[in-house]
Amino acid sequence: xxxxxxxxxxxxxxxxxxxxxxxxxxxxxxxxxxxxxxxxxxxxxxxxxxxxxxxxxxxxxxxxxxxxxxxxxxxxxxxxxxxxxxxxxxxxxxxxxxxxxxxxxxxxxxxxxx
Length: 114
Prior knowledge:
Elements: E1 7-8, E2 11-12, H1 13-37, H2 45-50, H3 53-65, E3 69-70, H4 71-77, H5 82-94, E4 98-103, E5 108-113
Antiparallel strand pairs: 1-2, 3-5, 4-5
């Protein structure tokens, strides 16, 4: 028996290699599809349609930051009134698109994208 085709737990190595290649191709395909479906602002087409203007702006800013964003910094960055930002954050939390956690050191909420 050739050492390249010796079975591993009952499977020929060629089959295991084929399964690994197919698995990697699926993962790459999913990542490319997600990138295609999610725009550079971090929003999907469905989110752009379903979110109100302020909600979309806030979510895009949080996602583009790539990490937690202090709520006061969000208020300085997004050109909305404090009321509109608070309303957008509330709606995004209800939809489970963001999460806010209190940061005692900063005395402010940190906004995380989900």
